[in-house]
Amino acid sequence: MQLEHLHIGNFRKIATAEIHPSPGLNFFFGKNGSGKTSLLEAIYLLHAGKSFRAKNPSELISLNEDTLAVSGVVSNNNSERTEIRVIKRKESSRYTVNDRNISSASQLATALPMLLINSDSFDVINGSSRIRRSIIDRTLFHVEPTYLEFLIKFNKATKQRTHLLRVRASLSELAYWDNEFTSNGLRVHHARLDCVQHLNQKLNERNLHLSYVPGWKQDLGLEEAIVQDRDKDFATGRISSGPHKAEVLIEIDQKPASKFASRGQIKTAVFLIMDAVSAYIVERRGWTPIFLIDDVSAELDADSQSLVLNFIANTRAQAFITALTDRDFKLPKESFPSKIFHVEHGIVQTCQP
Predict the structure, then answer these.
(1) What is the pLDDT of residues 128-142, one digit of tens each?
(2) 194 in the same domain as 272
(3) What is the CATH number of the domain that holds 178?
(4) Are strands 338-344 and 25-29 parallel, antiparallel or unpaired?
(5) How far is the C-alpha of 248 from the C-alpha of 211, rounded, in Å?
(6) Fewest C-beta atoms under 10 Å: which of 55, 62, 257, 290?
(7) How would you classify the pairing of strands 25-29 and 93-97?
(8) Mind listing the pLDDT tens digit for each residue in 143-180?
(9) 71 — alpha (psi -120 to 50), left (phi > 0) or beta?
(10) Which pLDDT does position 324 carry in this prediction?
């Protein structure tokens, strides 16, 4: 998958930018606050419909402007082209794929698979279980077309059941959402379990292992678990058991990474996991996801940077990478197309080779 053309308008300090990226490595360098991470945010917007830094869309719109627009032309491995457009106002958003409106931003991920690696990515081991679950969920968005539907239904059932528990609704009122919760929850659970097993086929070769732990007692079925928890859940107004409580444990050299891994091992593990995710997407969909790597020089030493860039070159993936200076970019040993862009005060300029 490749982003062939990118247009940005009124996104943070970028008033306008027109970029024709390399099909390989794309490097953006500039001082802190120059707008280079905003470029990655704008690209990510085409994938997720939202920023990876800001929750409030109004933070993304340039000062004194009412609307931002980001559009991109994407080609897949069969050279089929798709135009994706995201328009955001302070109170509304519009998403289109080939001029057709789509109702949910989450549908963008199926049109443009993308993997983001930034400082938050390195919290995958020591951060909350939600971060680890999200890696599996986002992988499944790309490889299982029906997974998003099941996850949306499960999340809706979780929200409705929680509300009914808090208002102490009758069992008859709860029955419908109990069924929605368990039926869609089990679909989510089995899809995640299958995904982890596939990722382990590659990770185990590198002394990494993922273990998926269901969010309920393993000697019970999900339906039995929520019945057993009912009195406690009515008392707390929360759902004690279910896929929303699941955990993904990470082991390095057969030891729990959260207890024994060094910072360097964690960084390496993150890229190995992303490598496995990328390979799984290629295997199932025939598309290589695009990589976004923010501030590579801050998180990785020179040797690690070379390993990462060579890994991307070997996968033939397109990548967008930011750093403070152009000296931070260690080009891979093998020949691979690349472009370098300088970013200053929100203005993007292509550097001559």
Answers:
(1) 888 899 889 988 988
(2) yes
(3) 1.20.1050.90
(4) parallel
(5) 6
(6) 55
(7) unpaired
(8) 887 898 899 999 999 999 999 999 999 999 999 999 99
(9) beta
(10) 77
Q: E strands, 237-337, where?
A: 247-252, 255-256, 290-293, 319-323
End-to-end Cα, the chain, rounded Å: 24
Residue 309 host element (H or E): helix 302-315
Residues 135 and 248 in one domain: yes
- Looking at the fold, whether 147 and 271 belong to one and the same domain comes out as yes
| pLDDT confidence bin for 90, thresholds 50/70/90 | confident
In the predicted model, what is the mean pLDDT of residues 24-39? 86
Based on the fold, state whether residues 325 and 282 are members of the same structural domain: no
Q: Taking the mean position of all CA atoms in its chain, how far away is CA 287?
A: 16
How far apart are the C-alpha atoms of 177 and 174, rounded to whole Å? 6
Name which residue leads in pLDDT, 216 or 275. Answer: 216
pLDDT of residue 296: 63
- How far, CA to CA in Å, does 247 sit from each of 21, 195, 207, 266, 286? 38, 14, 20, 18, 29
Q: What is the 3-state secondary structure of 111-172?
A: HCCEEEECHHHHHCCCCCHHHHHHHHHHHHHHHCCCHHHHHHHHHHHHHHHHHHHHCCCCHH
Give the residue from 286, 304, 321 where a domain finishes.
286
| pLDDT confidence of residue 328 | 59
Residue 246 lies in a domain: yes
Per-residue tokens: 238: 């929360």
CA distance 213 to 189: 10
Whole-number pLDDT of residue 334: 60
Q: Which residues contact 155 (CB under 8 A, 6 or more apart)?
A: 244
- DSSP 8-class letter at 61: B
Q: How far apart are CA 83 and CA 96, in angstroms?
A: 8
| pTM for this model (two decimals) | 0.81
Bridge partners for 255 per DSSP = 252
The domain boundary, picked from 251, 286, 321, lies at 286
pLDDT band at residue 344 under the 50/70/90 scheme: confident
In a domain, 255, yes or no: yes
- What is the domain range of residue 234? 123-286
